[in-house]
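re: ur question from the group chat, yeah i did fold both. here u go
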Amino acid sequence: MSMGGCYVAIHKDKLNELLDDENVSLSEFVFEEANAALMDKYSLEQAWDAFRHLFMEDIPELLGEEPLEDTDLGEGCFLICAEDVANIAAQLAAISAEDLKARFESEEFQTADFYWDNVWREDFDAVAEMFEGLVKYFAAAAQRGDAMLFYIG
C-alpha cells in the first residue's frame, strides 16, 4: 500500500467547528459524500514528499506545520490556518516555471532520499502539472478564506 498526500480545504469557521467538537470524526466528515459541497480536495498522490523537498526551505508550511493529535484522518494530519493558506498561495504563485525546473534539476533534489524518489525524480512534466494544479488550488482556497487539512494516508 502506498501513502498519498491530500489537501482538504474547508472554510475556516467550519473547520474550527469540526476541530472543537470532540464527537466529530474528521475521517467520516471528509469521506462522507453528503459533505462534498463543504470542502475542496487536492491530491499530491505519492509526490507529497517530493514537494516537501522542493519547497521545504522557503515554504515549510506547505504540508502543514501544526500536527493534529488524536485525529482519525490518515497516518498524519496537519492543520494549515487560513492566514497560512493565503501566504502559501502567494508564495506558490510567485514561483515561475523556470524556477520550478531549476529546483527539480538541482543536485540537492536529484540526490535527496524521499518517498517514491525513483518515480518523481524522473518525471518533471508530472511534477510541473501537479504544481500548476496546486497553485490554482491554493489560490482558490485563499480567495474563499479556507483553512486546510493536509493528511497522508
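okk and heres the other one u asked abt
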Amino acid sequence: MQVVYSDKFKASWIFFVTPLENPGHVISGTFKCMLFLFLAPFALLLVVLGVALLGFSVLPNLLLGCLNLCVIGSFMTYLLVRKLPFSSALEGTNQGGTFIRTMLFLIVPGLLGVGHWLLSGFQWVIGLWIVLSAVAFWLILDEVKKKGWQNLQ
C-alpha cells in the first residue's frame, strides 16, 4: 500500500511519542479510512445502478463482491504493510523487485472473482459466502489491530 509514503514524512514522529500499545490500530484505521473514501462511493453507485437496472435480486451479489474486496484488501494489509502511514519518504523507495510478488497476489482476487461468477446463480451459496467473507474480514482486521511494534520496520 502506498499510504506509507509522504512528502511530509518527518511529521510521523507523532506516532512514536504517543502511548500506542499496538500500532496495528493505526494501520487498521488507515485501511478502514481508505475503504470508506475509495470503495464506499463506488459501491453505492453500483448498488444504485444495479437495483435500477436489474432489481433487488442483485444486492446479495453486490454485497458479496464488496465483502470480497474488503477481505482481499485487509489480507494484503496484513501481509504487506510494515510501516505506519505517511512515515517514509517517496524518494528512498525500492522501485523494483516487487513485480512477481504483486502478480502472485493477483491470483487470489482472480480466483475469488471466477468462483463468484460461477456460483452467482445459487443464492444460498452466495448467502453462505457472504457470512464467511464477513467473518474472514472481521478476523483479518482483528489480526491487523494486534500488530505490534516488533512487526514494523
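fwiw on the second one: The chain has a mean pLDDT of 81. The first helix runs from residue 13 to 17. idk if thats what u expected
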